[in-house]
Write the C-alpha cells for this entry.
Amino acid sequence: MFSGVYTALLTPFNNKNEIDFHALDKLLELQLMSGVDGIVPCGTTGESVTLTIEEYKSIINFCVKKIQRKIKILAGTGSNCTEHTIQLTQFAEEAGCDGALVVAPYYNKPTQTGLYLHFKKIANSVKFPIVLYNIAGRTSINIEPATIQKICKTCQNVIGVKEASGSLKQMGNIKSLIQELEVISGDDILTLPLLAIGGVGVISVVSNIVPTEIVNLVHNFNKGNIKDAMKLHYKLLPLMEAMFIETNPIPVKTAAGLLHICESYLRLPMCSMEQDNKKKLIQTLDSYGILK
C-alpha cells in the first residue's frame, strides 16, 4: 500500500517564522515531477513538534488540495500524548489523507504494554491505514518485534512500520514474524539493504533535494537491475551521510536553501548549522554536482 519512495517532507518557513506556502507549493511540484510514490507531511523532518494545531491542519489541507490524489499522502500524526495523536489522526483521515505515520511516544518512555495500548487505541479510532514509526534514537524506546506482531494481530489497519532502528537484524525479525507487514526504511542509507531482505521502500529525507535519484534506486531494484541500484546507492552514499552530520532536519533544510528549493529557516530549538559542518555539506553538494 505504501511501497516505493515517500518523501519525509520539509516544512518551509519564511523570515517571519511563518509557514511559507509558496515554497511548500514549489517543493510539492518537485516531488510530483520526480515520480515519488507519496509524501509524508508533518513528520520529524517537517518539524512537526513546533507546529500549532492550526498550522498542522493548514499544511495537511494544503497538501491534500495540491496533490489531488496524484500520489499518496501519509500524514505524520504521532505525539507523546495518545489523545492528541488520536485527534491528529482523525483529522488526517477526514482531510483525505491515505494513511497516518504514528511515531512511538517520545519522552514518556512507556513499557511495551504501554506502547501496545497506545497504538491499539489510535488504530481503533480510525478506519484508514496506520504505519508505525520506530526510531528509538529520538524516542528513547524501541518497539520490539513481538510488540509489533501483537499490534498487527489486534489492529487490522496497522499495515506497515517505518523502521529507523538502524538494525537490519531487527528489520529481518519483524519481517519473519509478520510476513504481510510492509517494512519501510526510515534511513536512506539502509534502503537498498532493506529492499534485499523484503522491505518495500523508503520514507526518505534526501529525496527532498534529489527525489529522482531515490526513485530510480528503488525502481531499479524492483525491476531486477541490482547493479544499477547498487551504483546509485554508492553514488548517493556521501549525500545520504551528509544529511545527518547534524540533527535532522538541519542539514537537509540547509541543503534545500543552498539549492533554492526553499529557505533554510528552522524553528527553535533547531538552529543554523555550525560553519564547519556547513562547509562539509557544501563540499558534498558540489562533489555530487547539484550545487549551482
